[in-house]
Amino acid sequence: MAVAGDASATVTVAAGTGSGGAPASYLVTAVGTARTCTVTGSSGSCVVTGLTNGTAYSFTATASNSGGTSAASVASASVTPMAVQAITFANPGTRNFGTTPTLTATSDSALAVTLTSSTSGVCTISGGGVLAFVSTGTCSINANQAGNSTTLAASQVSVSFTVASVAPGAPTIGAAAMASVTSATVAFTAPISNGGATITSYTATSTPGSVTATLNQSGSGTFTVTGLTTGTTYTFTVTATNAAGTSAASGASGSVTPQVYALGGTGPGGGLIFLISGGTTYEMAPKAWSGAGTPDATATWCDGLTDVPAATGMDVGTGAANTAAMAASSACSSNAAAAVLAYAPPGSIAGQWFLPSRVEMNAMCNYSRNPATPAAPSVSCAGTVQNSTFAAGTYGFPNGTFWTSSQANPSAAWNPGFSDGVGYNQDKNVALQIRPIRAF
Q1: Coil, helix or strand at residue 335
Q2: 431 shares a domain with 282
């Protein structure tokens, strides 16, 4: 019997039956070669060396004693020697999420080793050995070499190591805009990489003054940074924080200067200041807000006669909430609300503009009648004539009707007419003019 080895074969022989007496030794020969080995005694094994891996061999044996040497035995079944190999694969130790290290494993056969991940939810590895980390945790990589016609497959070698979280990437800064006479809003976008751990907060910091504001959330958003100094020009940066640390700061935002505005002045969003009430200043968009040289846009209040109970505010200060309720209604795709919420001229951020409530619209109407001394918002605008100079200017109103954000009943909303100031309640699916306003 023969058993293949690495460039060798182990051959076992036993005494045959005959009358010549017990053999003193055997000579084993690889058929067709001069490769031999000797077994001493009446039975046993020896190793034939110097064979070629990948080549099949059979073996014969002759027995010898004091009486002489026997004829050769019948040839054994053939066996094929094969080389063995071992893989060397060092554990890389802890690696940081977001990096792309390269792993290398070698075999003493010089054949290429294949690396695969057994933890694809944590890490993957390319054919070139480059790691990509999907999440933090334990990454396990297997090294294999399948062998070839002359070499046996290697025993698999595996390494496991920790993928550790790191600080997030830097957020992307968005627009900065005045929010009040002592505050500003700063929009930002979450970083591409969270560092392998959930982002728990963002911090905005002003320059100058290092005034900060923090938002405890994981995704993009908008800060309101308070405590600023009126008349001072600020820029802002934003950082992100997770369990592993705090990111580098974003780039700097555009500058913004909180300041006190007067009635009739130009607001930070390019609108006209038409009302100052209770410490809040209101600006209206110019009549060409929807496109250069074009009049106010038109839209339906709602695409259907659908009740939006949260959009019934009438007074000053309720327009923003009404507009948000219109846009949030699952039963009503509020075209007028969507149009004004998307408006974002320089100095403001999308979502800051809204449809005026009924009384806010009344204040706009009163201002258009007498910009020098407009009547209070609570005073009816009906029966008066729009100031002709104002009507012809950048912020004037045509003799038409404009949607407010105030719902009159489940199927209609208020739309005062600037021809006579009278408030109407019109079916919501009629296209009327719209004019955004903003509060700060």
Answers
A1: helix
A2: yes
